């Protein structure tokens, strides 16, 4: 049985991290039918949609790519609800 990995992180763990992060999202209607969602500490990550649910679903789907980009660039990602995806460098 093979485990799918994204940026060296098991896909299931990354999905659980993303779900935990979205629970901390700040989502608000910026004008009728246009919603904006972001998470404090997740610099450069945001989403929008025609409803709260759509904005948060878009945010959820964007998190894995955002994490992969941050980690591949040598950055850290926020620890959220006990999920720490920052891997120590082998050395």
UniProtKB/TrEMBL annotation:
This protein's name: Uncharacterized protein
Pfam families, per the entry: UPF0150 (PF21748)
Superkingdom classification of source: Bacteria
Source organism of this protein record: Microbacterium aurum
UniProt-listed Gene3D superfamilies: 3.30.160.250
């Amino acid at each position: 049985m093979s485990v799918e990995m994204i940026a060296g992180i098991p896909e299931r763990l990354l999905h659980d991290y993303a779900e935990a992060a979205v629970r901390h999202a700040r989502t608000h209607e910026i004008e009728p039918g246009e919603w904006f969602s972001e998470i404090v500490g997740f610099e450069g990550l945001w989403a929008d949609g025609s409803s709260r649910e759509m904005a948060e679903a878009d945010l959820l789907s964007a998190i894995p790519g955002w994490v992969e980009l941050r980690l591949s660039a040598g950055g850290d990602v926020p620890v959220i609800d006990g999920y720490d995806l920052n891997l120590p460098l082998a050395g």
